[in-house]
Amino acid sequence: MIVASISDTVTTAINNHGVWAVFFLMAVDAVFPAASELVMLYAGALAAGVFGSDGVQIFGVHFAPGASAYLVMALAGTLGYLAGAIIGWAIGLYGGRPLLERHGKWFHLSPEKLDRAEAWFERWGNLGVLVGRVTPVVRSFVSIPAGVFEMPFAPYVSLTAIGSAIWAFAFAGIGYAFGSNYNSFDHGFRFIEYAVVVCVLIGAAYLVYRWRARAKVHDRADDSAR
Fold this sequence. Notes:
single chain; 226 residues; mainly alpha; 8 helices
């Protein structure tokens, strides 16, 4: 399945490239959904030394499995997400609505999603960035709209840094805590992923049903008017 393939791709990338893979994948997740939960869970598990991991390495410095390796992985996720979020903010700021109206599909931001994002910011204000960063799915659709709506850079970066740290350290901590039991957890987590996909498909089918029902009612109203 596609979900299983994504999981394998993420874990393989982190196995092969360690800290840099975590940094890059989290940077991508700041603009596009990139399975940040799985990224940080797996990063935390590797920091604990599972699968024969001997820890992590960056800039030629080796960190043995344990608290220091966990800290490095969690910081990599936090800083990677922050870097991606700044890029997304800049895209929104300098491209504005015209860019998204022309090329929104590249960023999975349709006019409808942008309208919802605007309503989100109207409801929460600047705090919407912090709330969005710790909200699944929503967190990947905050960066560009924040730039489009010209949110000031300093509070944007501050709130994003706080939110991304909460997310990265929490999920890496869960992965670290599971430690050697990660194999069984990952197996169970995939069933959760499958369940989410099924729920999405059911939800999409329901929306299509509602849309068709409304269309029929509208057609009957037109016929009556004639």
